[in-house]
Specification:
The complex is a heterodimer of chains A (about 300) and B (about 300).
Chain A lengths: L4 H17 L6 H26 L7 H19 L8 H27 L4 H20 L19 H20 L4 H8 L1 H6 L4 H27 L9 H14 L4 H17 L7 H15 L16
Chain B lengths: L1 H31 L6 H22 L5 H27 L7 H20 L9 E2 L8 E4 L2 E4 H23 L1 H11 L1 H6 L4 H27 L1 E2 L3 H16 L4 H20 L7 H15 L14
Antiparallel strand pairs in B: 1-4, 2-3
Helix pairs in contact in B: 1-5, 1-8, 1-9, 1-10, 2-3, 2-8, 2-9, 3-8, 5-6, 5-8, 6-8, 9-10, 9-11, 10-11
The chains are: A mainly alpha (about 300), B mainly alpha (about 300).
């Protein structure tokens, strides 16, 4: 898609580093939103791999986010007392990787049995898994059960949030554009034809699911260290649906569009704050209207890709 | 032993409500092949319709009589049937030829719209309300078993509605048309069936059943709120899949089974906290081992 995507990654990280050097001068409210934007980009880009590129409808992305969130938070809470403060970035990175890996493991456990299903059935099963993960956390005394986990150190800053987002976007784009990654698109376009060409659809679907779950877990870990309190209800069906909406508005399988949609949909609720009581009503109406007017996504000019699922 | 029987009765009462909602999911899936996510919210609207109808009806028919209860139930069913038809006409009909995913997202959008609008303080407000007593509140004791009049009403109403539904679907002209559309919409249209009418009718019928479920649920649990349809709706959908989606007796069986299993699990120490996860656990097992459901037909995919 973009020739020399690596160059873009480097440019992005340098830019992020420069911006974050001045981050102390920003209003902390806007900075908080900027960090949210970065986290949502990771979530949207990772779901885009599953939904947009591979064509597997998932309504349980928040479940993987919850796994990463709780894992990383428990890890840093346990370690933070034993290491000097200067080691905080290492703890965060450790938490991100650990959270991502455990979420990926859950993705594997969910993906292998369910990805034989299609369309609506897959949607409802992933929704079910997301709910099960939530109910499990709700009953786990070790992580605060229903009242949630608090006292998580505030390690996530602008630099980590956006750098991770850039890496996630690069990783997904590079994976899909590789020789191996063409298989995802083949599975999306026509599963039967793909398997006739010697592609193993289940393997590709599971790979997409595991990679997507990994980045969702990473995003969850960043989220935990940004908000400092996490709660099982924060990872419910609504959260999953928000991510789905980002992917659909951005245009399924279009990385740049999905990133723009993630940015817009994070800022939009903040802008609707003055009309807070009508906020969610407007949001849901917008979804209906957009699905009727532009089902191919806001930024897609031709409706060739992703329209025929 | 009495404990077990008591749990069974409670489970059947809950299961009947699931069954009523599941029938709506299954009928809509049968004709349109999509999950009507807003169905759980129609169930909620049914309960609220009952809440607001109770007072005006009580002026004509003395409150807490069986006749008054039946009138409220029928009026709420009628209101929700109209609502179901309107929802289909406004939100789903323009998307009839679109990819399934688009319709599914729209359905979730409609569901959220209903939930958030109803939570607004000028509509119903977010806080739970006490549902009025529609029928005489009596309990019978049979050798240690406690059976409330609400439970009896739930079971009796469900059975009557299911008989009515079977008669409509099997014996009437519109029922035959429904089955024809579910079997093959194009062929049905060629045979002179007005597919749009049939789909509207299906939404109306399913929504009426959901409204009945909503009122019966409210009678049994006494408290209603705008989000009551979310979990119940999802579980009823699980019930429909459990029985084999698109299959009417299957939805009824799935609903009853799910209600009983959930009630028994809720009564067991250790897993009672996981009650809400059980329905989804069952769903995953069913889809892994018998994706067509208990009574569904195996379908092979054509290239």
């Amino acid at each position: 898609m973009i020739p020399g995507a690596k160059r873009w990654l480097v440019v992005a990280i340098v830019l992020i580093a420069i911006v974050s050097a001045f981050s102390k001068q920003f209003n902390s409210y806007y900075l908080g939103i900027a960090i949210d934007v970065g986290i949502n980009i990771i979530l949207a880009v990772s779901l885009n791999l599953i939904m947009g590129h591979t064509g597997q409808f998932s309504l349980g992305h928040a479940g993987f986010m919850a796994v990463g969130s709780y894992t990383a938070a428990s890890f840093t809470i346990a370690c933070t007392k034993h290491v000097p403060e200067s080691a905080a970035p290492f703890l965060l990175v450790g938490g991100l990787i650990l959270g991502g890996l455990l979420a990926a493991l859950c993705g594997l456990a969910v993906g292998v049995p369910t990805l034989r299903l299609r369309g609506d059935y897959l949607a409802i099963v992933t929704l079910g898994f997301g709910e099960i993960i939530r109910v499990v956390f709700q009953n786990m005394e070790a992580v605060g059960a229903a009242s949630g986990l608090s006292g998580i150190p505030n390690y996530t800053n602008f630099f980590w949030s956006w750098t991770t987002a850039a890496i996630a976007a690069y990783a997904v784009a590079a994976l899909v554009n590789s020789t191996y990654g063409r298989g995802f698109i083949a599975v999306h376009d026509d599963e039967i034809a793909a398997s006739a060409m010697g592609i193993n659809p289940t393997r590709y679907k599971v790979t997409a699911f595991v990679v997507g779950a990994f980045f969702a877990g990473v995003a969850g870990a960043l989220y935990a260290h940004h908000k400092q309190t996490i709660n099982p209800t924060g990872f419910d069906f609504m959260k999953s649906f928000e991510i789905v909406v980002m992917v659909i508005l951005g245009g399924m399988g279009r990385t740049v569009g999905v990133i723009i949609a993630a940015i817009l949909l994070t800022i939009l609720p903040e802008m609707l704050r003055p009309v807070a009581e009508y906020r969610m009503i407007i949001y849901s109406l917008l979804i209906i209207v957009i699905m009727m007017a532009r089902p191919q996504g806001l930024f897609t000019l031709r409706s060739s890709k992703g329209a025929n699922t | 032993m009495t404990d077990l029987l008591q749990q069974l009765i409670n489970g059947l009462a809950l299961g009947s409500i699931y069954a009523l909602i599941a029938l709506g999911y299954t009928m809509v899936y049968g004709v349109l092949r999509f999950i009507n996510f807003a169905h759980g919210d129609v169930f909620m609207l049914g309960a609220f319709a009952g809440y607001y109808l109770a007072e005006p009806v009580a002026k004509v028919i003395p409150p807490q009589t069986y006749l008054g209860g039946i009138v409220v139930l029928l009026l709420a069913m009628l209101i929700c049937a109209l609502l179901g038809v309107v929802i289909e006409f406004l939100a789903y009909r323009p998307l009839r030829k679109r990819p399934k995913l688009t319709v599914l997202i729209t359905a979730i959008g409609v569901s959220l719209f209903i939930e958030y609008t109803c939570q607004h303080e000028k509509v119903f407000g977010a806080s739970p309300r006490k549902f009025p007593d529609l029928i005489p509140n009596t309990t019978w004791e049979l050798g240690g078993l406690v059976v409330g009049s609400a439970q009896v009403i739930v079971l009796v109403t469900t059975i009557l509605l299911m008989i009515a539904l079977t008669l409509i679907v099997q014996r009437t002209k519109i029922g035959t048309a429904m089955r024809a559309v579910a079997f093959n919409p194009q062929a049905a249209a060629l045979m002179g069936v007005n597919v749009n009418h049939v789909i509207s009718f299906t939404f109306g019928l399913g929504s009426a059943l959901a409204a009945a479920g909503g009122i019966l649920f409210a009678m049994n649990y006494a408290s209603i709120d705008p989000l009551m349809g979310v979990q119940t709706g999802l579980k009823a959908f699980v019930a429909a899949v459990l029985g084999g989606i698109g299959n009417l007796p299957g939805a009824a069986l799935g609903g009853l089974l799910l209600g009983v299993v959930e009630t028994f699990a809720g009564g067991m120490k250790g897993i009672s906290n996981y009650r809400d996860a059980i329905a989804f656990g069952i769903l995953i097992l069913i889809l892994m081992f018998k994706p067509s459901g208990l009574l569904g037909k195996q379908q092979t995919e054509k290239v």
